[in-house]
Design a protein that fits this description.
Elements: H1 4-22, H2 26-44, E1 49-53, E2 74-78, E3 81-82, E4 87-90, E5 97-102, E6 111-120, E7 131-137, E8 154-161, H3 165-172, E9 187-194, E10 211-214, E11 224-231, E12 234-240, E13 248-254, E14 256-257, E15 263-269, E16 276-289, H4 293-298, E17 307-308, H5 311-319, H6 325-359
Antiparallel strand pairs: 1-16, 2-5, 3-4, 4-16, 5-15, 6-11, 6-16, 7-8, 7-15, 8-9, 9-10, 11-12, 12-13, 14-17
């Protein structure tokens, strides 16, 4: 698979060509191309960023010693097993949970993680579960209910959730989502925990998520990838699941504060429903990013507890409910009535003013 920076450049070129088709003349075309190039490269800083594969932090074939040797950089837990083609976290059987964890902490300031994974099984739509999680956390090798890892974790969790617990809960209560809050599963979301925040299973983590996107990742014949980048305290997640070798945006959140020295890992769990959850590779890249003196001073303070700036604003945005069709109808009706009322009042005022003006001439 090509490096993430090369894929982002391909996306940049495709955006420019779309702008070219939209431009009405040569001058506009040239202007749009300059703007597109400036925005894309200014946002991502690709012209001043280099990446280096960190083999000691990465998991890839042929998985030498994983799960059987104490000298391996990766350790298995629970029902996880190694084959020649993948690390299988769970088989397509009920009540399984497994994980693979790095033994070496990551002390990189800026990093990128590319995950090659596969989720497949016999279950039909919404009759499979529960999902796979990618971790960057202070704790490691801890069994628990959050996709096979402990609750109240400290660090970052990225969840590929394949079962809609909240939807089933609402169906049992004979209530429905609004058009604004409904999700399509499988769903990718991210959460930052500080050791005291619990993952809400009944709501599929909605109350603590930073953002997310739908991702139809089950039973695909082509490769599927997840991309996690942490640079300049900005968390970016993209997916490549369409077999087109192009990254698709999932979420982009500034102000994410993650300490150094945490561990990478992957875990999965099954309950009454099941799936095969496979990890083919976890490749960690060190990002070398040029910073100005002001940026160095701003980011110089050591981060000891994971946190997210303006988290309350993110939650407010997610909790806002969309208007119902009835509310929209009445708002339009009252707006039209108010408009006509203003016209009538204006005509009355104008007629009085015009009559008074004529009286002054007689």
């Amino acid at each position: 698979m090509a490096a993430a920076i090369k894929k982002n450049k391909i996306l940049t070129i495709s955006r420019i060509f779309r702008l070219y088709k939209m431009a009405p003349n040569t001058y506009s075309t040239f202007l749009f191309i300059l703007i597109a190039i400036g925005l894309c490269f200014a946002d991502d800083g690709l012209h001043e960023m280099e990446e280096f594969l960190k083999r000691e932090l990465s998991l890839s074939k042929p998985y030498q010693g994983v799960g059987s040797s104490s000298s391996s950089h990766w350790e298995l837990m629970g029902d996880a097993m190694v084959t020649s083609e993948q690390v299988r976290l769970t088989t397509d059987m009920q009540s399984k949970q497994g994980a693979v964890w790095s033994r070496i902490p990551c002390h990189l300031r800026d990093w990128e993680l590319q995950v090659h994974f596969k989720i497949h099984g016999q279950g039909k739509k919404n009759l499979n579960g529960d999902g796979l999680a990618i971790w960057y956390t202070k704790e490691r090798m801890q069994k628990g209910p959050v996709f096979g890892n402990q609750d109240l974790f400290t660090g970052l969790g990225v969840f590929l959730d394949t079962y809609p617990n909240e939807e089933k809960h609402l169906e049992a209560q004979k209530t429905r989502y609004t058009s604004r809050t409904q999700r399509i599963f499988p769903y990718v979301l991210a959460m930052v925990g500080n050791g005291s925040i619990s993952y809400d299973h009944e709501r599929d983590g909605r109350s603590t998520e930073l953002g997310g996107c739908n991702a139809m990742v089950r039973n695909l014949k082509h490769d599927t990838f997840l991309f996690i980048r942490y640079v300049r305290r900005r968390l970016t997640i993209m997916i490549d699941i369409d077999g087109q070798h192009e990254w698709r945006d999932c979420l982009d959140i500034p102000g994410v504060r993650l300490p150094q020295g945490y561990y990478f890992g992957a875990s999965a769990i099954t309950g009454e429903l099941s799936d095969n959850h496979d990890v083919i590779s976890l490749k960690v890249y060190q990002l070398t990013v040029l910073r100005s003196e002001a940026e160095e001073n701003e980011e110089g303070e050591e981060i000891t507890v994971p946190s997210v700036d303006n988290m309350d604003l993110l939650r407010m945005g997610e909790n806002e409910e969309g208007w119902s069709p009835i509310a929209i109808f009445f708002s339009i009706v009252f707006s039209m009535l108010g408009f006509f009322l203003l016209i009538v009042v204006g005509l009355i005022v104008y007629s009085h003013w015009n009559e008074n003006r004529r009286k002054r001439f007689y």
